[in-house]
Design a protein that fits this description.
Layout: H1 18-21, E1 23-26, E2 32-36, E3 39-50, E4 56-65, E5 71-76, H2 77-83, E6 84-86, E7 91-92, E8 97-98, E9 103-109, E10 119-128, E11 131-140, E12 157-161, E13 189-194, E14 217-219, E15 224-230, E16 253-260, E17 263-270, E18 282-283, E19 288-291, E20 303-308, E21 318-319, E22 323-331, E23 344-354, E24 360-363, H3 377-382
Antiparallel strand pairs: 1-3, 2-3, 3-9, 4-5, 4-8, 4-10, 6-9, 7-8, 10-11, 12-13, 12-24, 13-20, 14-19, 15-16, 15-18, 16-17, 17-20, 20-21, 22-23, 22-24
Length: 390
Amino acid sequence: MKAALVLGLGLSALSAHAPAQGIALESRFAPRLDRTDSGISVRYELHVVNRGKAEVELRALQVRDAATGGTLLTLTGDRLRAAVAPGRGGCDPVRHLVSPGSECLVYVDTDRVRAAPGMLRSSITFLKDGSAGRADLIQRAADDAGPPLGPPLGAGLWVAVHHPDWPRGHRRVFYPSPRGEVLPGRFAIDFVKVASTGATSCGDPDRPSDALGYGDPVLAVAAGRIAATRNGIEESRSISANRAHDAATAPGNYVVLNLGGGKFATYEHLRPGSIRVRAGQLVRRGAILGELGFTGDSTGPHLHFHVSDSASPLGGEGLPFVFDRFSLWGDYPDIAHLGRARWRSSPRRSVASARPGANSVVSFAALAPATPESQPAHCAASGVSSGEMG
């Protein structure tokens, strides 16, 4: 996984002068196209390795379409600072400094493009011993989201909570595994149910069972065989009292569905005792796997969903995916307003073969109010509908 990449395989090439300056660019997991409701972008991680004997200051990152020369992303100043994270050893992401023998990690999410690029050229410009330099990496952008998936959830409105810039978001959290560090949540989404008012609870916001989506059926996104399950993690009685969890229990109760072709769909934080399937069982698309809950490392009831190349929830590399169809209602420009205010509305439209974009508000089912069965009984009694479409 950590081997240097080579040009002939669609992977790595340094500019002629870069080796002499001791700066190398590596990409240890090939870039992937990410198709969302807002367009196409490319997502990957770039390792800037200082193999020299002097400190290096990163000045800019530019990503171009290697075929057309068109610019896909430029990062300088604060934008570069926000994308840089420590790699191995002495990386100072605030000052963009890479010490000898260490590396910085750059999270790359290109701007949206109309047409999918084939080959990418990533270029880092830097200062070393007062002289400017540049290192380049040429790679192929893989377009391997696979067949569109069915809905993971049923009726109602769902906020697709994720954003590539969050320092502790799924996009940026690596986990140790027998194959080295992996990034299972590279394309992960946390689905939170929301009312038309923006409310996420119909009662006590600190009581998990009062969350609008609590107990909602979680659905198989494709026909396949169940690869793994866990059903023995208990829930905290209140959201505020939920303890910190280690990596082993962080996913809570889960189901992993084998999609075929080395891909696995993972559903996390399911309600205790709700899982209806067992490892090895074949299921049809749309089958109920369990219920949305609040187990594991969670700040509120939601469904965590991701696709990776491993049946272990935190043991694989995150892979792109698309749903066959959903309706886009709007988004939350500031996710801090979730549960406090209505989202920003946009012209309602149907989206095909895409992943919900950052903090989009979507529905998977027909555009109709939820039935009492699609929400906790006490919510129906309170008059707060989790599926209001106003």
